[in-house]
Design goal:
Blueprint lengths: L6 H67 L1
Amino acid sequence: MTQTYSKPRQQAERAFSNIQTQFFAKNDAVEELESVAYARDAKTLRLREARIAKEVADRVSVTSNLIAKRAKMR
């Protein structure tokens, strides 16, 4: 049971299909950009945490070295 539509209806269906395809393509592009931004933000946060941890470890190391140096001087 196949229906044959009029020529104007077929053209309208094709036009709608094209618009719908463009709409979904835009949504896919937006989702891809959002996922890239999320990954970038997660990496930035991870690197920031690693940098802060290293700075804290360096401070502790320098402090302990100074304390040891002063203890030797006494």
